[in-house]
Design brief:
Length: 128
């Protein structure tokens, strides 16, 4: 099972979410999104290594996850983490799925991304 498949299985088991393939021009790209508000919490794709600033033209699997700008900046200093490919948000990070980042490090980021993109609670706060 690939890391991408492991993350899909985790999302199904923990959030009841299956991958969606919304891009006809990029059929290998998948998103995991909330059922209620349809917001993405993970974007999976395959990009050429050189598009991440690495040597080579072979494609590698990545996942983009939301994590906040400070954590994203810190993670980008470590191997296997990059500015979110093809996104202009500082609070997202691309993670290589080639084994350079351990699954036990990716899973908490997926959980965080899920939490950060959850629907906001509506209603007024009670005054004390």
């Amino acid at each position: 099972m690939t890391r991408k498949e492991e993350l899909f299985a985790y999302a199904l088991n923990n959030y009841g979410v299956e991958p969606d393939y919304p891009f006809s021009i990029a059929p290998t790209y998948a998103v995991l999104r909330h059922q209620s508000n349809r917001k993405w919490f993970a974007l999976f794709g395959d990009v050429k290594r050189c598009q991440l600033g690495l040597d080579g033209d072979e494609k590698v699997d990545i996942v983009n996850l939301k994590c906040g700008p400070i954590l994203a900046g810190s993670l980008r200093l470590e191997d296997g983490y990059f500015p979110a490919y093809h996104m202009k948000h500082d609070g997202w990070v691309s993670v290589l799925l080639d084994g350079s980042v351990a699954m036990e490090d990716i899973i908490p980021l997926l959980d965080m991304s899920y939490e950060l993109t959850m629907p906001k609670l509506k209603g007024k706060r009670k005054k004390d």
